[in-house]
């Protein structure tokens, strides 16, 4: 499996969020071509401000492996993570994050902040962006267009 395959899976998760009236963001965590966890935005329906797609995927993955650390894992997410999610990704020791599209209002991997490149941290996560960005952006645009 390749990055595009896994990002397509994250986009499928984002569509689950959209169907529930949530902002369509999806995430999947993979290690050794095995899905450890997936998630999609659920803060509205769960009444939980921490229920972002990345956090949901981290919770599922950590439960699956019975460990709060996920070394060697890659997190695929359809939108650039926020500060909260970036912090959780670091604490979980995720090796790599691949995100589809930038989030200019709250992105923590370069758009507003650059958390992963903070030198004082004891774990550094490699990140890449742009994979299936147009599909992710279009999903978000359509969602917000319908809401207006």
Textual characterization of the structure:
The chain is α/β, with parallel strands linked by helices. It is 39% helix and 20% strand. The protein has a five-stranded mixed sheet with strand order 2-1-3-4-5. Helix 1 packs parallel to helix 5. It is globular, with a radius of gyration of 14 Å. The mean pLDDT is 97.
Features:
148 residues, single chain, five-stranded mixed β-sheet, globular, 5 helices, alpha/beta, 39% helix
Short description:
The chain is α/β, with parallel strands linked by helices and 148 residues long.
Topology, pairings included?
Layout: H1 3-19, E1 26-31, E2 34-40, H2 43-46, H3 53-65, E3 74-79, H4 83-91, E4 96-101, E5 126-129, H5 133-147
Parallel strand pairs: 3-4, 4-5
Antiparallel strand pairs: 1-2, 1-3
Helix pairs in contact: 1-5
Provide the spatial order of strands within the biggest beta sheet: 2-1-3-4-5
Number of helices: 5
Estimated structural class = alpha/beta
- For the termini, the CA-CA separation is 38 Å
Order of helices and strands: HEEHHEHEEH
Low-confidence stretches: none
Task: Determine Rg (CA atoms, Å).
Answer: 14 Å
In percent terms, what proportion of residues is strand?
15-25%
What's the multimeric state?
single chain
Query: Any idea what the shape is?
Result: globular
- Total beta strand runs: 5
Helix content: 25-40%
What is the averaged pLDDT score? 97
Report the major sheet.
5 strands, mixed
């Amino acid at each position: 499996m390749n990055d595009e395959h896994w990002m397509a899976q994250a986009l499928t998760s984002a569509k689950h969020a959209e169907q529930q009236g949530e902002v369509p963001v999806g995430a999947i965590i993979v290690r050794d071509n095995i899905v450890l966890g997936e998630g999609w935005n659920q803060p509205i329906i769960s009444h939980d401000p921490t229920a972002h797609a990345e956090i949901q995927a981290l919770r599922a993955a950590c439960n699956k492996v019975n460990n709060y650390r996920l070394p060697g894992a890659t997190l695929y997410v359809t939108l650039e993570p926020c500060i909260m999610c970036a912090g959780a990704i670091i604490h979980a020791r995720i090796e790599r994050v691949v995100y589809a599209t930038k989030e200019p209002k709250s992105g923590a991997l370069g758009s507003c902040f650059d958390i992963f490149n903070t030198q004082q941290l004891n774990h550094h996560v490699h990140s890449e962006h742009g994979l299936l960005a147009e599909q992710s952006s279009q999903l978000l645009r359509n969602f917000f267009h319908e809401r207006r």
